[in-house]
Amino acid sequence: MKITVKLFATLRTGRFKVETREYNPGTTVGEVIKDLNIAEEEAALILVNGRHAQLDYQLSEGDTLSLFPPLGGG
């Protein structure tokens, strides 16, 4: 199945901004994060199709997964 993965801020470093990737049916968000060599704690905000998702969320054909690092501010 094809999944569009969007990386933001520091998660792009040495990776990509947007990429369509092929995964097996039933692949979870956590498995994609591991495949991208991103530590789970680095993916502080996870969205699937614009909605908050957890690591165990099973992705479906055509989903868009957006990953954000921890955000700081003051």
Automatic annotation (TrEMBL):
SUPFAM superfamilies, per the entry: MoaD/ThiS
Recorded superkingdom: Bacteria
Protein's name according to its UniProt entry: Sulfur transfer protein ThiS
Species this chain originates from: Calderihabitans maritimus
